[in-house]
Amino acid sequence: MRIARVLTVAAVLLGAAAAPAAADASPSASPSGGSAAPASAGTSFRTATEIQQGQQATASASTGDYLYWSFPADAGQRPTVKATVKLPSSSRSGAQTWQLDVYDGLRRRQACQYGAQTRTAAQDVASVELACTLRTVRAWSEPWADDPLPGTYYVRLTVVGLGTADLGLPVNAEVRVDSKDIGGSAAVDGSLARPLVPGIATSQKSSDSGSAKLSSLTPGDGWASGWWSDRWVWTAIGGVLAALAGIGGHALTRGSGRPSRVPPGV
To answer: Which residues, including other chains, have CB under 8 Å from residue 238's CB and lie 6 or more apart?
Structure first.
């Protein structure tokens, strides 16, 4: 009976501890409905339109323009950027090839784990869809590595192949970024002092001279939100199970070591 009670307690603790870990694996929450989705795009890194994850931004442009957006990504997230370009139904002279690129806060082009980053639309196709899933954002990395780090990420959408006659034709673009929280499997022992976000030096006459005015982009629950991961949960589970195993082993040893009673008169 004692061993059965020990196993029951272990099962309850295991289920309670695993619940936060399951929650960590869910996609990140979308922004509140009150935030208006941007309806324009920037034309360079410096003028990139800021969007939050979960927002669907739109923009009207001309074929040949470079369209830029920026979004925040924190440690433990695996962002997926999706873009749809709606092409004019007529007046096109041939096929068009569109490309989606993603850069980190240091403006290093990030490789896509998977997704159609470049696609060609035939002359009679009305739209083209692109996607890029980045590697999981790490809290810390070696200086020589090209790992994605917490901070601002830039999305660039443009046409890379078309006939000269099609330059300047109107197009409409839609961009959306969503992330999956990977959890403890991507956790590392280290973190950046500050996220990689763009900053503009303030005037020396200001009270905080020499500081930087950071971008207004932040994750929904703030930067460095990934300090907690399910690796802590499973470490705690391992400790609990080890303690319970010790208690169970002690109970078994104590029970088997008791001398058997000898009937009276023997």
So the answer is: none
Residue 148 vs residues 52, 76, 185, 198, 199: alpha-carbon distances, Å:
18, 10, 16, 15, 19
102-141 pLDDT, tens digit per residue, is 999 889 999 999 999 999 999 989 999 999 999 998 887 7
For the entire predicted model, the pTM comes to: 0.68
How far the first Cα of the chain sits from its last, in Å, is: 31
Residue 179: left (phi > 0), alpha (psi -120 to 50), or beta?
Answer: beta
Q: Kindly tell me the burial class for residue 102, based on how many C-beta atoms sit within 10 Å of its own C-beta (0-12, 13-18, 19 or more).
A: buried
E strands present in the chain:
49-50, 56-62, 67-73, 77-86, 96-103, 112-114, 118-121, 127-134, 151-161, 170-181, 199-201, 212-214
Contact criterion met (CB below 8 Å) for 28 and 179: yes
Q: Is 127 helix (H, G, I), strand (E, B) or coil?
A: strand
| Cα gap 92→260, rounded to integer Å | 96
Rounded Cα distance between 54 and 76, Å, is: 17
